[in-house]
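#structure-requests
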Amino acid sequence: MPSREATDQIMSALVAKSEQRAQQREASARSQAKAIKPYDFRRPDKFSKEHFRSLRLIHDSFARLLGSSFSSYLRTSVQIHCATIDEVTYGDYIQSLVSPTVVYIVTLDPLPGQAVIQLDMPVAQAMVDRLLGGKGIPDPRVHDMTEIEMRLLKSLGGFFGSSLRDAWANMLPLEPETSEPVFSPEFVQITLPSEATARLVFEANLVKTVGTMSICLPHPVLQPILETLTSRLSNQRAKEAEEDNDELGPIEQLRRVSVPIIAELGHARLPLREILDLAPGQILKLDTPADGDLTIRIGGVPKLAGRPGTVSKSNAVRVTRTLS
């Protein structure tokens, strides 16, 4: 029977081991808690970073085209650039808009569903004022749009559609159509409030008026081409690399040109009757000595001389001298 002292030692060891296991479980729970990322089921991530990069490339082009079109139409400088892109639910997007604002519903045939284009009211009023012969200054007074102003706003919507068509041309032959403008975003229901959307926000600068415009693209609209979006990004990067090469100086471009190099074993001259009698197994005597150098042609021009050999089971030539 173990002594009292031995029993106490055994009990102390068991208690210490139990406490150590408890500490390990607590540390493991803390590390798992840090690794857990909260997931909001109201805002599921349906767009990847690659999708956003591709959409950003397309709509950077859209912003340039739209700014150029508006500048020509309004006969004044209009600058538009894409500021942000993120994923929000459609309900949150509508709630983020200030009323009144100018909203166009856009169909993007052959894509399913509809999208939304929104333009800040001060920017829209400045454009209308410019079209009516003014200096492009928004009217601070709150008033209902006249029939003439509504027609002008509808004509502005046509530029959104044409710029989208041209910006998406390399991706998909879109045929956008914009609706009559509305001014109460809460009445624009093109999809479920919980549906994920890609929101692009642009900054518009017209004369002394600075405001924003936005595009809301629901996930079901883009879903048929999401894989194409990622492949387009890869193609765009390859194109940019080619453009970088085009910007190189002429000397650097010449250094990257591939030139054929041929090592000649030798030559032989035979009468035509012997050439006609050539068959597999016959040996041709060349004019190059067995221990002589081979002529190396660069771009068809004799430039070097070398000795034949092998490197890693492949035929090779070691350069011995240059030819004058």
